[in-house]
Amino acid sequence: MPPRIIGHRGAALDAPENTLAGLREAARQGCRRVEFDVRLSADGRLVLMHDTTVDRTTTATGRVRELLLARLAAMDAGARFDAAFAGEPVPSLADAMGVANALDLWVDIELKCDPGDSAAAAAALVASLERVRPAVQLPLVSSFDHTVLAAVRTAAPGLPVAVIVPTLADDWRAAFGTLGAASLHVGERGLTEDRVKPLVDEGIEVAVYTVNNPGRARELFSWGVAGVFSDCPGAIAAAL
Ligand code: G3P
Ligand code: MG
Fold this sequence. Notes:
Bound molecules: SN-glycerol-3-phosphate, magnesium ion
Low-confidence stretches: none
CATH topology: TIM Barrel
Shape: globular
Strand content: 15-25%
Mean pLDDT: 96
Largest sheet: 8 strands, parallel, barrel
Radius of gyration: 17 Å
CATH superfamily: Phosphatidylinositol (PI) phosphodiesterase
Number of domains: 1
Strand order of the largest sheet: 1-2-4-5-6-7-8-9
Structural class: alpha/beta
Number of strands: 9
């Protein structure tokens, strides 16, 4: 599979999002790159979770930031997706990095952060990455939140970072430059060639989320985008 297809939340169409099973499913589909979301627990550890609460993706309830890592690890993050995945835990970032390294997956860690938590999130990220053996390739740290990316830059100057924006009309230029971002990740909706091509020509690495339609992926690649995030990376690769 071309490395430019990135499994979104693992392979969110085919396995529960942001779980170890999702990482394994992405690898099984031939994917070499994955993205997942992380958030702080009550005890300052990073866990894989997209939403501010566990309500949508687990059989439990509550705000991630108010739950201890041990509680989160004991939750079922698989059964809501499919009974076949019942018992799949909410993984810590360190657990996920261990599995990704074992599967030789390149990782984009998307840091989701409450206001005021930037320094704690950056510190937790560094601590988690120290817990796992070094990957061949450093992970990328991405976020919609420019403040937390700046905190990551301070805590771990060697880690590449990426700026995420819902649309190209959003204000990203200044942060992109100040942070020395490696790439710009932008939402797929409404993206047009006349907005994307000039950025590609400028030498900016653009990756687009979330692309589950092979025709759209083909179009984006024809404009020179560097990567697409997909919930079904195997199907996209097969169609391309
Ligand atoms: O990192 C790209 C993409 O995952 C951002 O959107 O809401 O799926 O985390 P979201
Ligand atoms: Mg994400």
